Write the structure tokens for this entry.
Amino acid sequence: MKILLDTLAEADLADCHALFVDAVHALGRRHYRPEQCAAWAPPGAMPDAWRDGWARRLARAWGVKALADDGRLAGFAWLLFDGEFDMLYVAPWAAGRGVGSRLVGALLYEGRRAGLAALTVYASHGARPLFERAGFVVERDHLAWRDGVALENWIMRASLAEPGRAAR
Ligand SMILES: CC(C)(COP(=O)(O)OP(=O)(O)OC[C@H]1O[C@@H](n2cnc3c(N)ncnc32)[C@H](O)[C@@H]1OP(=O)(O)O)[C@@H](O)C(=O)NCCC(=O)NCCS
């Protein structure tokens, strides 16, 4: 199956939310307990407050989506203009084929082109190896609190100033 990358738009956010819930509950569960997955991505329709919050964040970010040749959304990601990698999710049926790495690579290109010196990410356990391959290094561990539930993740950083440190 061919996967193509395209610009992510606000109109894609409802599909992104459905993919996000699927990804967390099918892939995130390899590293997080069910109650952690439920707090991270509450199942069900996208609440209006989330829609508004995601739209506001995407408006100040480079966003990219991965589409299969049959039109299905295979993944999405966005990088805030201030250099924080805010979103990275891949559909369970598309996982493990390099889609996440391609999304990260496309956004690294945007960050570098805009002249950012460094990027940061709060990486999940599952995403840490992918970000390491892309040139990010772990600064420290971190706890993100969602609905009173703690989720362990990793604060990682990539320097774009040194050529070759962060892979395209
Ligand atoms: C983390 C996540 C985005 C990774 O997406 P992905 O598309 O599966 O990522 P990749 O395919 O690029 O890499 C995943 C694995 O596939 C393997 N892989 C990469 N390219 C491949 C290819 N062309 N063929 C076969 N396998 C491949 C890699 O070895 C990698 O293994 P590792 O990371 O365990 O070392 C996805 O699992 C996800 O959405 N998880 C739930 C939510 C989450 O944790 N999001 C990140 C928040 S920071």
The chain has one domain: 3-159.
